[in-house]
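Morning F.,

Quick status update on the modeling queue. The single chain you submitted on Monday has been processed. Sequence for confirmation:
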Amino acid sequence: VMHMSTPSADVTEQVDDMSAERRRRRRALVVVLRSLSTSSGTDDTGGKKKKYIADLERAAAQDAKNLASSEDITSRLPPGLETPKYEVVTKRSSKTLRYEVRNYEAFSICSVSMSKPRPNSAKTDEQLSEPQLAGASSFGALAGYLFGKNQEGKAMKMTTPVLTQGEDENKQMSFVLPSDYWGPDGLAQAPSPLDDSLVQLNRDNGGTRATIVFGGFATKKDAQTQKEKLLKALEVDPDWVAVENTFVTLAQYNDPFTPPWKRRNEVSIPVKVRQR
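Structure tokens below.
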């Protein structure tokens, strides 16, 4: 299971070096070839296969412009995994940008610093099939906690998305805990992390967030671009304004082998009602 749950390249402390770029391209090529091999076949002229390739190109182009349909975006949620609950308050749409304002219910998370080394990672971390991926170390610590490397030895179900927030030494990665622990006293019922794991349990009180959804592999550059687009849009939003001195959150929903045109990523920021 773990090889299908490891973070995509650049999930957090993304380092856009040449080796990381080559790995992203290799994975993208693999998923393209896999998709082509499982398409519905071809006639002598390659008609069906050509149509399938054209569909992929069209989907990729829509993703690049953030214009994938809401039905398409919804279908990209991994089946069977719990995710924080929210209600859409407002939708904004133009020819070049779509975003929405959501009101989230409270949920609980387990988090780990992405800048602090753990003293006993062999004991606390889950082994990953691709440990060279950026963010894999932090992911392994959280996966270890979730899958039973905690003081109670209790395994829990995987959830989605993987959240990253903050910058530099304050950057952290978080997993959403199962909904059994979302209640007001949920954290008291959750398994205690191992001391050496540096994993911490926290309650997210939810609240109102502006969110932009985009596809592809969420590189550091992509996340920054989406952040700037969202903040610029909020500057002129008639009803909502970004809360000052708060972190932008990157959410990634899919495993690294999901094709770019089927991936769901989000950048969100807390907002409040604009004073008139």
